[in-house]
Amino acid sequence: QSLPQQKLLTWLSVLECVEVFAEMGTARVWGEMGRWTIIVVIQLAKAVLRLLLLLWYKAGIQTSPPIVPLNREQQQPVHPQEVEESSSGKDHTYVGRRSSRVVRSLQSTPSLQSRHWGSPQQREELQSRRAEEMNQPPTPLGLQETLAESLYITRPLLHLLSLGVWGQRSWKPWLLSAVLDISSLSLLSDLKDLNRRERAELRRRTILLLYYLLRSPFYDRYSEGRILLLLRLLADYVPGVGFVTRPLMDYLPAWQKIYFYNWG
């Protein structure tokens, strides 16, 4: 990736990390008008950054989070002792005569901090496979797939615009957002030869369609009572589950009111 593309990904990651804090802090200081203002500003900035990555840098299907978390096992430094042993030609493994099991020799045992319980061959294969997956270039998108990704990127802006036109109690913003999400996934479903990260991202977007059960006005009219009733039954009749469901019952109404939790 080029340096400008890395900077765009960094700023996009920063926005995703601070968006909930910005929404809640602005609502506390400037009220409801300030809250919706910062929501529009953040969603507009995210859409612009994502469109630049899609159309200018050909980043393909964009994942969330934009920057893949660091795999510390894969990034473990090579210890001088291991380098010295490998250069001296010492065997790192021992093969059992009867069982044919490959075990690490005592001479090549690493320090406790970098020790793992798999065979050296398994670790090397896993690290090489992960490195290969990370270095895979994004799948080129055709016109249909680019349109589908553009729909997914601009969906938050169209939803906010429809909220401003029809209001928060109307079904039209909810239906418009659902149609855009389903249309984007349908257009991207024909894309073949996706890498591992892109397939995981499409699965994540499909699972996130369940959020429409928790989004207003569907949640206010249909889901709220049924979900709270189910959680209450689990808490009352299933031993041990109440430690999870009772805090969830108290937290769900507050979670549902925060835009970036259920719409972002």
Quaternary form: single chain
Low-confidence stretches: 77-90
Largest sheet: 2 strands, antiparallel
The number of helical elements comes to 9
Query: Helical content, roughly?
Result: 55-70%
Strand order of the largest sheet: 1-2
Distance between the termini: 26 Å
**Overall mean pLDDT score?**
85
Determine the structural class based on helices, strands and strand pairing.
Answer: mainly alpha
Give the percentage of residues in beta strands.
under 5%
Q: What's the SSE pattern? A: HHEEHHHHHHH
Total domain count: 2
Determine Rg (CA atoms, Å). 25 Å
Q: How would the global form be characterised?
A: globular
Number of strands: 2
Main traits of this protein?
264 residues; mainly alpha; 2 domains; two-stranded antiparallel sheet
List the helices and strands and how they pair.
Layout: H1 3-56, H2 80-88, E1 93-95, E2 102-104, H3 120-134, H4 143-166, H5 172-188, H6 196-207, H7 218-237, H8 242-257, H9 259-262
Antiparallel strand pairs: 1-2
Helix pairs in contact: 1-4, 4-5, 7-8
Describe what this molecule looks like in 3D.
The chain has helices at 3-56, 80-88, 120-134, 143-166, 172-188, 196-207, 218-237, 242-257, 259-262, and strands spanning 93-95, 102-104. The protein has 264 residues and is mainly α. The chain has two domains: 3-66 and 139-214, no CATH class; 215-263. Helix 4 (143-166) runs antiparallel to helix 5. The longest helix is centred in the N-terminal third of the chain and has 54 residues, at 3-56. Mean pLDDT is 85; it is low at 77-90.
